């Protein structure tokens, strides 16, 4: 790809060509001046000599009128004598020299012809080819006639011959261009050199211009998304270094429920919606704004806000309204669309543009979760939950560097004063050896392949640690983990061959709205049960806890959500809810675990209930090793 | 007159092919004369002959014996057997050498010149247009 270098070269060549043209024209001008000087010298030389001849003759022969002169020259002897004298002025550069007079009819005739060749007879008519002959008679001043194609003549000099201030004849002499030709032939190589040089430079300019044009054509292709004709992410990378974020707000735009358009009407409809929406976007923004297709149905908008700090919301609202009021007609279908928009008004406050985009993306996420078709702007006082989060690459590197570890928190049977099992909790050691908690990296992994890889790594770590012991362990799995074929294979391969070990494992499944297909979910729970492992429903009592689902899957444990436990010593309502859950579990033949037991008061309050097990910081924090009874109730 | 002067200037200024412009002048001169007989023209200048042979007005012939007006560059080419009624010459001196030649068109010092000898055209019953009058001469100098 051509870069600034070529444009610089192009400019240099233009300057060089200009310089060459200047030098060339300077040489041309100098040449003309030189010719003029030589001509003038020659002319004055001839005139001076002729004047001497004329004066001497006129004085000697006592000529004082035109008639005297005519009579004198009409005699052959006199004429030959005069012609001989004047002929001394002939040279290779003075080809003809002759004396003309104008007769009564205004025709010019030869009085003398000193020329060596093509000599005219006395009084022979001379057909003039220029009005300057008459002009000499009229104004009594010399005239120059320049020739182009008269033999080898370049000019004729007409010199008036006056008696009593009245022109009586014209001395005419023709100067050849031999001298010019000689000088030209001397200068020719220099001129040719400049011409060749200029041709060469012009060719270079043309080639560079072609390259520059090609660059701009290619550049357009590289930076344009073919479907929407908007800029693509390549363009974003290109402009990032030049973009002054102090003059722009950033907005992330996402067409709502776009996937369902593709699923319902097909990809052609999806493409149609994308191109039409892009057009609406373009028509809704200003020339100073920059719109980029960021991915699938996601668009990134840089809103120019210099002098208008609050324009971003206004522009985005206009975009949103224009999209929602438009009716897309595809085939026979009328389709309505909406767009959710997240804005970061002051991206320059962020560490870099990627952070600013990420924040706008989070606003977009909020817009989506608040019902879509909304514009949400990031405000200065907003605090985002996962402000300090780690990206996919952090986790990927941790897996490669073997920095994924597990901490284990005991699950305690307060009746028998025994640790019944441990809950494995993932951690990552960063490169400095600091422990990073899952809330800082798990949300960013959702729906990514790294999430499944991380789960597999955790399973391997736990299986390796516990297989050779007689201790039990509880492992957290999401529904999405559960339905992943690779994870299922890992579990199956490790546990099927060691059923004793399998019985010591509990999979804690988090209830979530992602469990769309209940039958499929039941099938997976059945698979766990078939291995002899147990199933625990995690965080029961919060969100969308569904008693029917819990019964259907025949869970072995109910882990009561920490939000119900943490204030149970002070909140009677929480106490009653927990009491009811325990009752439900008992009648349903499930054991109960209370998590988030963080204080003695909570611990004592829970002891009043018919609870099976407890877990929490009051009993033991999660630690890297497997805690023993001696390690409990220390802090 | 003006047309001829302009033609001469044009020739001097732009001429790149002498024969072509010589032919043009001849064409003009011959078009501006009238004789008792319809002119059948022949010239010993092959180039001029070729230039004018397809002329729409001038009736060019290929043989001197078929002509009544000859344009002569070389006196030797005049035929004793086939005497032309009118002779136009291409050198000034030929006007002297061929006493019955009535005019000349020739180059002098790189410039075209035309001379029509008035007594001779009167004798030969040749009349000329006004355009040719400035070229009339009483005698050959």
Description:
The complex is a heterodimer of chains A (635) and B (141). Chain A is rod-shaped and about 165 Å long. In chain A, strands 14, 15, 16, 17, 18, 19, 20, 21 and 22 form a nine-stranded mixed beta sheet that branches. A six-stranded antiparallel beta sheet of chain A has the order 3-2-1-6-5-4, sandwiched between helices. In chain A, helix 11 packs parallel to helix 13. Chain A has 635 residues and is of the alpha/beta class. Chain B is α/β, with parallel strands linked by helices. Chain B has helices at 2-14, 18-31, 46-52, 92-97, 118-123, and strands spanning 33-34, 41-43, 69-72, 86-89, 101-108, 111-117, 127-128, 136-137. The model of chain B is unreliable at 12-16 (pLDDT under 50).
Largest interface in this structure: A-B, 24 and 21 residues
Class from helix and strand fractions of chain A: alpha/beta
Strand elements of chain B, count: 8
Specify Rg of chain A, calculated over alpha carbons: 52 Å
Main structural class of chain B: alpha/beta
CATH class of the largest domain in chain A: Alpha Beta
Strand content bin of chain B:
15-25%
Determine the N-to-C terminus distance of chain B: 23 Å
CATH architecture of chain B: 3-Layer(aba) Sandwich
User: Helical region count of chain A?
Assistant: 21
| Alpha-carbon distance between the two ends of chain A | 65 Å
Q: Superfamily at the CATH H level of the largest domain in chain A? A: EAL domain
Q: What would you call the quaternary organization? A: heterodimer
Query: What's the CATH class of chain B, please?
Result: Alpha Beta
The tally of helices of chain B reads 5
Mean pLDDT of chain B: 86
What descriptors fit this protein?
heterodimer; A: 635 residues; alpha/beta; Beta-Lactamase; Alpha-Beta Plaits; TIM Barrel; 3 domains; six-stranded antiparallel β-sheet; 22 strands; rod-shaped; B: 141 residues; Rossmann fold; six-stranded mixed β-sheet; two-stranded antiparallel sheet; 33% helix; globular
């Amino acid at each position: 790809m051509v870069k600034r270098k070529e444009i610089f070269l192009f400019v240099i060549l233009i300057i060089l060509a200009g310089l060459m043209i200047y030098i060339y024209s300077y040489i041309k001008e100098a040449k003309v001046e030189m010719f003029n000087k030589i001509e003038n010298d020659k002319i004055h030389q001839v005139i001076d000599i002729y004047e001497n001849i004329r004066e001497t003759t006129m004085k000697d022969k006592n000529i004082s009128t035109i008639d005297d002169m005519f009579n004198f020259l009409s005699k052959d002897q006199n004429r030959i004598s005069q012609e001989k004298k004047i002929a001394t002025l002939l040279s290779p550069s003075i080809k003809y020299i002759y004396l003309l007079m104008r007769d009564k009819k205004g025709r010019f005739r030869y009085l003398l012809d000193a020329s060596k060749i093509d000599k005219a007879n006395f009084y022979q008519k001379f057909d003039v080819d220029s009005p300057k002959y008459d002009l000499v008679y009229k104004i009594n001043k010399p005239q120059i006639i320049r020739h182009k194609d008269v033999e080898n003549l370049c000019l004729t000099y007409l010199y008036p011959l006056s008696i009593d201030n009245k022109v009586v004849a014209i001395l005419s002499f023709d100067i050849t261009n031999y001298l010019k030709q000689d000088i030209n032939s001397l200068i020719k190589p220099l001129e040719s050199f400049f011409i060749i040089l200029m041709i060469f430079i012009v060719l270079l300019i043309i080639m560079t211009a072609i390259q520059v044009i090609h660059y701009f054509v290619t550049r357009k292709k590289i930076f344009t998304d073919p479907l929407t004709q908007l800029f693509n992410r390549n363009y974003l990378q290109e402009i990032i270094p030049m973009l002054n974020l102090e003059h722009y707000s950033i907005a992330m735009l996402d067409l709502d429920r776009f996937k369902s358009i593709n699923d319902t009407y097909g990809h052609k409809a999806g493409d149609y919606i994308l191109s039409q929406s892009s057009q609406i976007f373009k028509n809704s923004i200003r020339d100073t704004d920059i719109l980029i297709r960021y991915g699938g149905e996601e668009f990134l908008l840089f809103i120019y806000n210099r002098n208008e700090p609050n324009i971003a919301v206004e522009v985005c609202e206009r975009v949103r309204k224009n999209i929602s009021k438009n009716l897309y007609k595809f085939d026979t279908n009328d389709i309505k669309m909406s767009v959710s928009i997240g804005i970061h008004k002051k991206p320059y406050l962020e560490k870099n543009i990627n952070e600013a985009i990420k924040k706008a993306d989070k606003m977009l996420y909020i817009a989506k979760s608040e019902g879509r078709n909304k514009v949400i702007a990031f405000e200065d006082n907003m605090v985002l939950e996962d402000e300090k989060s780690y990206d996919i690459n952090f986790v990927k590197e941790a897996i490669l560097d073997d920095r994924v570890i597990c901490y284990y928190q005991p699950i305690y049977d307060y009746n028998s004063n025994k640790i019944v099992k441990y809950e494995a909790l993932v951690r990552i050691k960063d490169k400095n050896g600091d422990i990073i908690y899952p809330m800082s990296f798990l949300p960013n992994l959702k729906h990514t392949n790294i999430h499944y890889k991380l789960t597999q790594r955790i399973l391997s770590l736990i299986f390796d640690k516990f297989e050779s012991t007689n201790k039990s362990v509880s492992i957290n799995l999401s529904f999405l983990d559960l339905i992943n074929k690779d994870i299922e294979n890992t579990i199956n391969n490790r546990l099927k061959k060691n059923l004793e070990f399998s019985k010591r494992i509990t999979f804690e499944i988090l209830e979530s709205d992602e469990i769309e297909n209940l039958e499929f979910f039941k099938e997976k729970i059945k698979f766990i049960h078939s291995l002899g492992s147990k199933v625990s429903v995690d965080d029961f009592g919060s969100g969308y806890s569904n008693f029917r689902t819990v019964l259907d899957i025949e869970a072995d444990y109910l882990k009561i959500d920490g939000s119900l436990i943490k204030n149970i010593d002070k909140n009677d309502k929480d106490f009653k809810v927990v009491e009811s859950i325990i009752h439900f579990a008992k009648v349903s033949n499930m054991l109960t675990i209370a998590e988030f037991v963080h204080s003695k008061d909570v611990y004592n309050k829970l002891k009043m209930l018919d609870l099976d097990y407890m877990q929490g910081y009051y009993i033991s924090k999660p630690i890297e090793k497997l805690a023993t009874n001696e390690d409990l109730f220390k802090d | 007159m003006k047309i001829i002067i302009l033609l001469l200037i044009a020739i001097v200024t732009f001429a790149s092919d002498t024969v072509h412009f010589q032919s043009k002048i001849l064409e003009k001169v011959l078009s501006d004369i009238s004789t008792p007989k319809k002119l059948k023209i022949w010239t010993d200048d092959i180039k001029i002959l070729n230039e004018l042979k397809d002329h729409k007005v001038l009736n060019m012939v290929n043989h001197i014996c078929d002509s009544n007006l000859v344009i002569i560059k070389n006196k030797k080419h005049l035929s004793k057997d086939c005497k032309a009624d009118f002779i136009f010459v291409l050198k000034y001196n030929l006007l002297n050498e061929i006493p019955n030649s009535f005019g000349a068109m020739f180059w002098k010092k790189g410039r075209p010149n035309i001379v029509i000898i008035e007594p001779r055209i009167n004798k030969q019953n040749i009349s000329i247009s006004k355009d040719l009058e400035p070229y009339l001469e009483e005698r050959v100098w």
